[in-house]
Amino acid sequence: MASAEQRAAGGASATGPAAAATASGAGPGAGPGAGPLLQVEGLTVHFPIRQGIIIERRIGDVRAVDGISFSLARGETLGLVGESGCGKSTTGRAIVRLYEPTAGRVLFDGVDITTLDATGLRRMRRRMQMIFQDPYASLNPRMTAGGIIAEPLEIHRVGTPGERRERVRELLATVGLSPDYASRYPHEFSGGQRQRIGVARALALEPDLVVADEPISALDVSIQAQIINLLERLQGRLGLTYLFIAHDLSVVRHISDRIAVMYLGRIVELASSRDLNRTPLHPYSVALLSAVPIPDPAVEARRRRIILKGDVPSPAAPPPGCRFHTRCWLRERLGNPVECETIDPEFRSLATDHQVACHFAEKVDGSAEQLQAAGRGTGGGAPVVSGGSAAAAGGSAAAAGGAPPGARAVPPPGASRPGE
Fold it and tell me: Measured between alpha carbons, how far is 165 from 285 in angstroms, rounded to an integer?
């Protein structure tokens, strides 16, 4: 199946409302009705830090999500990526109000769901569902697969008992499982089959929006491909809109129309999948892309990678200025400019539909030609900084704590690469 990047390039015909909007010249955000399906404005989620046993007092906050904004068009897939602890899952849960936002607005089809009472929220949740990360922990072990899938129908009083049973059989067949499996319990299924049950449950109420919170991270690689292909087929058939949360950029590149990169509670770059992978403009995005493996031994032997120094700062006490400046390889190459430590960078547009939060994004040159010359060839590779040599490293950006300051050259052949 063609990736989102190939569809954008015209290499394959896309399906669903997003394709119809593109074909009509409406572009992203155009869909039936008016405006985007989902609009997030200044979303903030802080968790209080308390001290004391008898008398508790609040001594601070964990700033899991700290004022992010984005929109999601009907029929579109937006990938949300970043290393562990950056606030991806919290964002997804806050959008469907499994977590209560501290501030900001979440507009779903023009309705601010942060102001809805319990009754209004229940009605709205028929149109937004979630696929959880752990395919076993998210299923009740005391319920059969049929009972798990039918539960949303029972809660919202959809159909008669006979109609619900028929709907369960239909959903099992839709996700590639035998309808006869409805009587089995979760422990009788493999990991991939359990995740398919989670997908079927999310589709039971025919939602418009599905928030997929790392739906494949706990699965084997072969099973991951099956689940991704299943999600793409369902999107084309049912016109679904996805917020796809993951830390694996190679997967996100395949399924997403646009990608948002998060770091320490903030979105630092937002662009189409094609633009982000060919021309990343934020040093953090460049580092993440350099850790994506390439299934070509010749290219992999020539490529260079970025290793980030130090550890991710605590979200309870984020650094001033740019939150990435404590680990930024570009800042060190530019002589540690004071703006990075003192001024919070504006989230600005540098190209059409390409936004970035970096004072010196223009200094990052990630053009396809230079990346290819640096050994990228078929995707992945190292960044090229204007006026400097290609940065190099070994290892995953998401697990690169303790590395020497800056980006340094490391012989790639034989170097170990932790998984993302």
Answer: 46
pLDDT in tens, 70-97: 999 999 999 999 988 899 999 999 999 9
Task: Return the residue matching tokens 């640096």.
Answer: 374
Q: What percentage of residues in the chain have a pLDDT greater than 90?
A: 57
Q: Which H helix or E strand runs over 61?
A: strand 57-72
The residue among 386, 330, 404 whose CA lies nearest residue 394 is 404
Q: Name the helix (H) or strand (E) containing 266.
A: strand 266-272
Cβ neighbour number for residue 119 with a 10 Å cutoff = 8
- DSSP class of residue 320 equals S
Domains of the chain plus CATH, in order, are 85-246 (3.40.50.300), 280-399 (no CATH)
Q: Closest by alpha carbon to 420, among 84, 64, 79? A: 84
Q: What is the pLDDT of residue 70?
A: 96
CA distance 197 to 145: 7
Section 2-18 average pLDDT: 42
Rounded CA-CA distance 330/299 in Å is 24
pLDDT above 90: residue 322 = yes
* CB within 8 Å of 401: residues ≥ 6 apart: 308, 310, 311, 312
Q: Cα separation of 214 and 130, whole Å?
A: 11
Q: Extract the tokens encoding 102.
A: 């501290």
Residue 211 exposed, middle or buried by CB count within 10 Å (0-12, 13-18, 19+):
buried
Q: Quick one: tokens of 27? A: 């572009």
